[in-house]
Automatic annotation (TrEMBL), chain A:
Family stated for the protein in its record: Belongs to the ETF alpha-subunit/FixB family.
Pfam families referenced in this protein's UniProt entry, alphabetically: ETF, ETF_alpha
GO BP term (any one): fatty acid beta-oxidation using acyl-CoA dehydrogenase
Lineage: Bacteria, Bacillati, Actinomycetota, Actinomycetes, Glycomycetales
Gene: fixB
Name of protein: Electron transfer flavoprotein subunit alpha
SMART domains: ETF
InterPro entries assigned to the protein according to its UniProt record, in alphabetical order: DHS-like_NAD/FAD-binding_dom, ETF_a/b_N, ETF_a/FixB, ETF_asu_C, ETF_asu_C_CS, Rossmann-like_a/b/a_fold
Automatic annotation (TrEMBL), chain B:
Biological source species: Glycomyces algeriensis
Gene that this sequence comes from: fixA
Molecular function, one GO term: electron transfer activity
Domain of life from the UniProt record: Bacteria
Cited SMART domains: ETF
Family matches, as SUPFAM superfamilies: Adenine nucleotide alpha hydrolases-like
Family stated for the protein in its record: Belongs to the ETF beta-subunit/FixA family.
UniProt GO cellular component terms: cytosol
Cofactor field: FAD
Record-given protein name: Electron transfer flavoprotein subunit beta
Length: 309, 256
């Protein structure tokens, strides 16, 4: 049987996707540092959960978790070790790779039983097949790679007691500041994302984007031109240097569709664009596009949406 | 305070890019630029030097044409450069690259290494952590703000929904996002001055690294293809009905 080790950081959608992908490859053993992660692993069909308990581990950045993951990877000797492709997931995978002198594949969007991985290159313009040639398949998995499918079970739980070694106390986390997301769904997890770009023209007019998002029960996103101009906070930026989203519906209003923006939204199921320039590249990838002024089109659409509800 | 800034020359991410016949990033086109996020690393290094004194050394691993990128960083204000150039490097994996860069860092005196959060070609975003593992220095990655006081570096590590404050003792490795600053342009004076700044060129043998290239890589690329285009959509012109038409589409797709 193929053994799959999965790092489960939390109870979010991305973690559920990685567990689901792991299950298609073999028997999943999940690594959980808290109860919420352990519960998610059970819900998504893990056969086994390593429930790690390490006092004070959250006071330090990356290093102590990397040590735990390296030790578990060494003793479990899996065929695959999967982590979500987040900043943390990639950092941990990098540390495991050096410690074990193992191959490393990042931002994988698909995996086959023989270890062949699908990866995007050049912001998604090129799709590459690759494979590890040393050690097990160590891969970080991009969000939106699989549809999360629950398979509730009662995994065997192995308690792992770990201590934070002095050498792993080098980077202290002295404060965690969460900027509240408000009532809207989180950008990375939302079913619907409505994004505005430079074409929205001002911070005030982003209220129109918010109204459309609310009418569709979605999250608000923004292009980098919009965040750079201060129309909307940076944390809502979609794209290569912002958040990668993969919703059922992505609406781009006043966004030209630069390659760096497309990198963060091109796996959305349905893409809708509103832009007054018929030649904007975003129309090349849109399932439905309206060539027109967003200040005419969106208010009319809003009215029509309200009528239908 | 001595700072090493890591920069990588990459094909311009705004233009068409491709893999060559050996399935490696094609670096022969004319459209090579400094890694877009590395510009922010350079700016951060220069600002820290301006505040705390010391020297900024630019370190790059790349083919001959990467000299252009090195010159640009010197023109922006860095003091000297180390350029590792060796035909045996082509086809290396990230782990090998990190071993080479770590060997070069071992020859330099530094309190701080500043890198981009990710390169804009391979875009793995792992080099700072790989270097931390190899050098034993702490890595504080993904910074949107850096402060140095005494021998402690403190950064705001950017997250999707906020940030974490991280701190560590020097020497340390920091990587930065594009939210941290606005990179300067090289001045004419800077461009002239750059011509006289020292650039040391090293080969793998100078660093005592013997294993590199495809033979030492722990992964291989099997094939590459252009992403199949999405099926053509329906594009309508707004002649007063665009919003209604959009709502009809959303209803047909069951979003309302
Ligand atoms: C290293 C690097 C990383 C980057 N990362 C990202 C990233 O993560 N995310 C990102 O988005 N970008 C990123 N970019 C920037 C990217 O290259 C583009 O500059 C950016 O996406 C452009 O944003 P935009 O489409 O809103 O603006 P523009 O390209 O200026 O487009 C505005 C569009 O609005 C339309 N418009 C104007 N007024 C109206 C109106 N009234 N009604 C309808 N349409 C209108 C115009 O026709 C135009 O098409 C990155 C760039 C670099 C170099
Ligand atoms: N060949 C290289 N030479 C110098 N610096 C590099 C090189 N490759 C990566 N880096 C640095 O590491 C950062 C992250 O790179 P990566 O892990 O490839 O995404 C880059 O932004 C650079 O600062």
């Amino acid at each position: 049987m193929t053994d799959i080790l999965v790092y489960v950081p939390n109870s979010g959608k991305h973690a559920a996707e990685v567990l689901t992908l792991g299950r298609t490859l073999g028997d999943v053993s999940a690594i959980a540092f808290d109860d919420a992660a352990a519960a998610l692993a059970g819900e998504y069909g893990a056969a086994k959960v390593y429930r790690v308990d390490a006092a004070g581990i959250d006071d330090y950045f990356v290093d102590p978790k990397a040590t735990v993951l390296t030790d578990l990877a060494r003793s479990a000797a899996p065929d695959f070790f999967l982590l979500p492709s987040t900043d943390e997931g990639k950092a941990l995978a990098a540390r495991v790779a050096v410690a074990l002198d193992n191959g490393l594949l990042t931002d994988v969007s698909g995996l086959e039983a023989d270890g062949t991985a699908t990866q995007d290159a050049f912001a998604g313009a090129t799709v590459v097949k690759s494979k590890s040639t040393k050690g097990f398949t160590l891969a970080t998995v991009k969000t939106g790679s699989t549809e999360p499918a629950p398979a509730p079970g009662a995994p065997a739980v192995e308690a792992v007691a770990a201590t934070v070694a002095e050498a792993d106390q080098r980077v202290r986390v002295t404060e965690r500041v969460d900027e509240p997301a408000g009532d809207r769904p989180g950008l990375a997890e939302a079913r619907v994302v409505v994004s505005g770009g430079r074409g929205v023209g001002s911070a005030e007019d982003f209220a129109l984007i918010e109204r459309v998002a609310d009418a569709l029960g979605g999250a608000v996103g923004a292009s980098r031109a919009a965040t750079d101009a201060g129309y909307y906070p940076h944390k809502f930026q979609v794209g290569q240097t912002g958040t990668t989203v993969s919703p059922q519906l992505y609406v781009a209003a006043g966004i030209s569709g630069a390659i760096q923006h497309r990198a963060g939204m091109q796996t959305s199921r349905v893409i809708v664009a509103v832009n007054k320039d018929a030649d904007a590249p975003i129309f090349g990838m849109a399932d439905y596009g309206v060539v027109g002024d967003l200040f005419q089109v969106l208010p009319q659409a809003l009215e029509a949406i309200e009528k239908r509800k | 305070m001595n700072i090493v800034v890591l920069v990588k020359q990459v094909p311009d991410s705004g233009l068409a890019r491709q893999l060559d016949a050996q399935l490696r990033v094609d670096r022969n086109g004319a459209n090579n630029v400094m890694g877009e996020l590395d510009e922010y690393a350079v700016e951060a290094a220069l600002q820290l030097k301006e505040a705390h004194g010391g020297e900024v050394t630019v370190l790059t691993l790349g083919p001959g044409q990467a000299t252009e990128t090195v010159r640009k960083v010197l023109a922006m204000g860095a003091d000297k450069a180390v350029h590792i150039e060796d035909d045996a490097v082509g086809g290396s994996d990230a782990l090998t690259t990190s071993a080479i860069l770590a060997a070069a860092l071992g020859r330099l005196e530094w309190d701080l290494v500043v890198a981009g959060a990710e390169s804009t070609d391979s875009g793995m975003g792992v080099m700072p952590q790989l270097l931390a593992a190899r050098t034993g220095a702490p890595a504080l990655t993904g910074a949107r703000k850096i402060d140095i006081a005494e021998r402690t570096v403190t950064v705001e590590h950017q997250r999707a929904n906020g940030y974490d404050v991280l701190s560590a003792n020097l020497p340390a490795i920091v990587s930065v996002w594009d939210t941290i600053n606005t990179p300067r342009y090289p001045s004419l004076k800077g461009i002239m001055a750059a011509k006289r700044k020292p650039v040391e060129t090293l080969a793998l043998a100078d660093l005592g690294v013997s294993e590199a290239g495809p033979a030492a890589a722990r992964n291989e690329v099997l094939s590459a293809a252009e992403r199949p285009p999405r099926a053509a959509g329906q594009i309508v012109a707004d002649e007063g009905q665009g919003g209604d038409a959009l709502a009809d589409f959303l209803a047909a797709e069951k979003f309302i």
